[in-house]
Design goal:
About 50% of the residues lie in helices and about 15% in strands. By secondary structure, it is an alpha/beta fold. The chain folds into three domains: about 180 residues; about 90 residues; about 230 residues, P-loop containing nucleotide triphosphate hydrolases (Rossmann fold), CATH 3.40.50.300. The strands form six sheets. It has a six-stranded mixed sheet with strand order 13-16-17-11-18-19, sandwiched between helices. Strands 8-12-9-10 form a four-stranded mixed sheet, with helices on one face. It has a three-stranded antiparallel sheet with strand order 5-7-6.
């Protein structure tokens, strides 16, 4: 099974950067019943029902101590029957269809025994038993062939005997033709020879062959004796009679199977859904993922949430995200290079995965269902749309925002001049702080930190133990970034903002010109 997102759900560049492709590859499994599945955003009610089913199934699996690996292994034996259902409905199943149908119901019954109480739709599964009984009555060798009546068996034996006799005579023909002409013939295909073939004269004089000239090509064919023609004619007559009897048999089988079609179609759909749920739970177990818990109040609480692409890059040095967002507007501030944008991308990754019905990379996550998720990352603009970076940001806020939406904005209105940007930031935050949604943005504007009714977070800065002025490489500095954030209470805003002078200290740890460093030191002393 290969999972894919519906197109344009995540912008291409962001899709690659955040590693959605690698995350979806966890779910790649060779399951004929589910060759490919396109994931589309779920509406709130459908999404919550989807995860409720997953949680209930997980509970049953745990209670009965079922082996999901074994269940998936057996599920792989079920053939895909999508192509077969229209023939089933039209009562036109052929013998090869019956084999696929028989294999499905047989392997499905084995799967039901493994599933125990997790087995789906018991009232519908009875149709599989009935179908199996009918197919076993009319077929043999594990549904690969139909059972013959004495009349049909007799016809089949006569045909086989004639085929053997015909094969012997044709082999003798081929040998004699080769002896006389040097040409190897295989009945019944004509052989093409050019006009200047070396043995053409021998072929023309051979009584066992006929030659027809078409343009520049000679078509050489058998000139069969009457006895051989009689064998072929008799074989064809018997084959036609047997074919008629088999058609009647197939008509009878289709008639017996048809009353169970509707139940089977419903059961087949349920089986595919159940298999998809098993895959999700198996990957959840393999990758230590979690299922979200939904709440009626607006907000989102993440515990040890992970952005897989960044975790792969940083390995054991990676620090998961812990964050508790409330209804309304929240602001995250802090120095550059402390991970503010990464926080937004991690939240976006988690919300998008949940919105698409997938378990997520976190220890736990509790939230209201993310039916609408909007993310704005700072941009230099778009020439094709004739928009500057500021124009794109303004346009972002013209989107229709529904109740309970999640809105994530990086560096709110840093795309324009500081005075205008700060004022626009205050206006937007005041507008959204009382709405039934979650707005979470990063900002460098001190003017927004003192707004009432917003939640304030700060990224923890780099902790320096070295003497001011000691040069660090960029790699060393990145190792010291804590990538943690903390909530700032209103009474602590003043002290928290004073610590924003940390970027000046960070700058001193780079090999800048001494004249620049001296001015930075003067600023710090002041």
């Amino acid at each position: 099974m290969k999972l894919e997102f519906e197109q344009k759900i995540v912008p291409d560049g962001l899709y690659e950067e955040l590693g959605f492709d690698g995350f979806l590859s966890f779910f790649d499994m060779d399951i004929p019943l589910l060759p490919r599945k396109i994931l589309r955003p779920l509406k709130a009610e459908k999404g919550k029902e989807h995860f409720r089913i997953l949680k209930d199934l997980q509970k049953q699996v745990d209670q009965q101590k079922l082996d999901l690996e074994r269940i998936i292994a057996q599920s792989r034996k079920l053939p895909l029957l999508d192509f077969l259902l229209p023939f089933f409905e039209n009562q036109s199943l052929e013998q090869f269809h019956l084999y696929s149908l028989g294999k499905f119901v047989y392997e499905n019954l084995v799967l039901q025994e493994i599933e125990m109480e997790c087995s789906i739709a018991p009232e519908l599964s009875k149709c599989c038993l009935k179908i199996k009984e009918i197919l076993e009555t009319h077929s043999q060798k594990k549904f690969s062939g139909l059972r013959y009546t004495p009349e049909e068996k007799g016809l089949r034996e006569k045909i086989e005997k004639l085929e053997q006799e015909l094969s012997a005579k044709l082999s003798q023909y081929e040998h004699e033709i080769y002896e006389q002409t040097g040409v190897r013939m295989i009945y019944p295909y004509p052989k093409e020879l050019s006009q200047d073939a070396e043995n053409l004269s021998k072929i023309l004089n051979c009584k066992l062959l006929s030659v027809t000239c078409k343009q520049d090509i000679n078509l050489v064919n058998y000139r069969l004796s009457q006895s051989v023609k009689n064998i072929i004619a008799e074989k064809n007559t018997l084959a036609k009679k047997l074919s008629h009897l088999m058609e009647k048999k197939l008509t009878k089988i289709n008639k017996e199977l048809y009353p169970f079609f509707r139940s089977f179609r419903r059961y087949y759909k349920e089986r595919k859904n159940q298999t998809f749920y098993y895959v999700l739970l198996l990957v959840k177990h393999r990758q230590s993922l979690c299922l979200p818990k939904f709440q009626t109040s607006l907000g989102c609480k993440l515990k040890n949430a992970i952005l897989p692409s960044l975790q792969t890059q940083k390995k054991e040095k990676y620090l998961p995200l812990n964050l508790d967002l409330d209804r309304g507007a929240s602001v995250l501030f802090g120095a550059n290079m402390t991970g503010k944008t990464t926080v937004l991308k991690t939240i976006y990754f988690q919300l998008t995965a949940i919105r698409m019905g997938l378990p997520v990379c976190a220890e736990s996550i509790q939230l209201h269902f993310p039916e609408q998720v909007e993310l704005y990352l700072k941009s230099a603009g778009n020439i094709r749309w004739n928009l500057s970076g500021f124009g794109q940001e303004i346009e972002f806020f013209t989107k229709e925002i529904f109740p309970s939406a999640y809105i994530l904005v990086d560096e709110l209105f840093q795309s324009t001049d500081p005075i205008g940007g700060a004022e626009l930031s205050r206006i937007i935050l005041r507008e959204f702080c009382h709405k039934d949604l979650v707005l979470f943005c990063t900002s460098h504007y001190p003017e927004v930190l003192y707004l009432q009714d917003i939640s304030l977070f700060r990224m923890k800065d780099v902790d320096f133990n070295e003497e001011i002025g000691h040069a660090l490489t960029l790699s060393d500095l990145m190792e010291k970034i804590p990538y943690k954030l903390e909530r700032i209470l209103p009474e602590n805003i003043g002290n928290a903002f004073k610590e924003s002078r940390k970027p000046l200290y960070i700058a001193l740890h780079f090999p800048l010109a001494e004249s620049i460093k001296e001015k930075i030191r003067e600023q710090l002393k002041g």
